[in-house]
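Model it.
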Amino acid sequence: SYILKKKTITGKKASIVFLSGYRSDKNGTKALFIEKLRKEYGFEFLRFDYSGHGESFGNIDSLLFSDWVNESKILIEKLTKHPLILVGSSMGGWIAFYLSTVIKKKILGAVGISTAADFTLKLENKLNQKEYKNYIKQKKIVIKSKYSKDPYIFSKRFIDDSKKFLLLKRRINIKCKATLLFGLEDSSVSLNTQLELLNKFSNLDTSLVILKNSDHRMSSKNDLELLKRTILNYI
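Modeled.
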């Protein structure tokens, strides 16, 4: 399920793509905020639901990280017409930065909001010896989330699959500019992950902007104003 709004006649010659977080969708606060910006500035805008999310088919617990990476790549390459600005939130930030290394189209910039790069490996590494034994036995990690009444379940199959896309183990060869937006009140993703990412980017034109009172969602008025300034800076 996707929504593509074409560039208006006088609009900015750019295609913005929003990549949502895990268990989020194309109708979240930040996606709808960019939709409002599109009405004002006329750029092309693509937002979509990964399989198993929102209005797309699929059982989220039986899908793999590579499904969402490949779906995103295909939709972006087939549907967008102009130089790209990839905007990814949480897991979507990980996907956005990975795609910026493999998509053949021209990319103006990539923006990561509370980027959860390599979060599956970090989940694995956090386990103590007893938890790790349970993980190997049960073939899953169960995480309580304050964003959902149901726990998040990550299968070993999902975690192993995601390792094909790890960013922090290598140099990230992106040719475009990159911006990381992060809130110090984030309890889901660490500041250290953002600093690791910043150090891995090959392009020197990258920045990390930290807001003191913002949380993982980065959906407050201040956060959205920062997102607007970041996007306008690219277009």
